[in-house]
Fold this sequence. Notes:
- With 339 residues, the protein is of the alpha/beta class.
- The chain folds into 2 domains: 1-149 and 302-339, Isopropylmalate Dehydrogenase (3-Layer(aba) Sandwich), CATH 3.40.718.10; 152-294, Isopropylmalate Dehydrogenase (3-Layer(aba) Sandwich), CATH 3.40.718.
- It has 12 helices and 12 strands.
- The protein has helices at residues 18-27, 42-52, 96-111, 125-130, 139-146, 176-182, 185-201, 228-241, 253-256, 259-262, 273-284, 319-332, and strands at residues 6-10, 35-40, 57-60, 74-79, 117-120, 153-158, 165-169, 209-213, 246-251, 267-270, 289-293, 299-301.
- Helix 1 (18-27) links the parallel strand 1 (6-10) and strand 2 (35-40).
- The protein starts with 5 loop residues before the first strand and ends in a 7-residue tail after the last helix.
Amino acid sequence: MASSPLLALTTGEPAGIGPDLTLALAASWGTLEARVVAVGDPALLAARAARLALDVRIVPLADGDPVPSPRDGVLPVWPVALRAPVEAGRLDPANAGYVLETLDVAIAACRQGRADAMVTAPLHKGAIIEGGYPDFTGHTEYLRDACDVDEVVMLLATERTEPALRVALATTHLPLRAVADAIDAGGLRRVLTILEADLRRRFGIARPRILVCGLNPHAGEDGHLGVEERDIIAPTLAAMRGEGLDLVGPLPADTLFTPRHLADADAVLAMYHDQGLPVLKYAGFGEAANVTLGLPLIRTSVDHGTALDLAGSGRAEAGSLRVALDVAVRMVRGGTSRP
């Protein structure tokens, strides 16, 4: 394994803060133990650097050019051309194809062994959809389809907190009224299998201990407040415990996220997006990374959106993107280093 991993960093929605964050990190890489190549439009990045008064030199790389070790004030770039001019803070759906092409370049580099991991700055789903991609639902699903896998798992991690808090989701971007119908034994088993396997493979945890939330208040209260725990979740966990997995639950979500329960846990599985992520973001917003598990490649991202109102202002905080880079390095190394 390379001593200095190569991370492909997609710069996200060009009108958002993705270019700003990328440039802010390039101005001062700090102790990053990896080489980074941005994927985006060099002219856009140069113009945004000038607007932000950042002394960063943009270095476009041709196919086959080596990516150098990080140097403050230098940003290597794999060029992808914008489809339309960009104004910071103003979406233009004409650039939807540009954003997706940056993802395609990074995915191909990882799958071909030219990059060790990809890290993604935020994109804007609405702009992609309005730009002619009506079925687009987000990075996670796009990566799943591009890598031709049946199932992926979204995990957010506050790796810099003590203890580290990692929250995975049984369902992702669904309306709340659709969540209960989406919880079934097969899906729950697949998510837990992926989560447990990648905690071992990517994070170096020999026997992961996973806490599992119930779906309903009080974890269903023995069927009086909902039957999903009794009929689906508890039997699935019991069966998988019999196969050797260390699973605890289903637990009421309102008490699971307390120090007593989390002290010896390696991850939490929440049943839906807004059950687990508000807790994690309260604990470490701007200091967490979004990780896609179940892929044949490593992908991490930020824990926030495009922040159009901050684009080009110099007020965007690059903390989450830095965590995403650090977590990617740790995953490349199989969990042997910790940010």
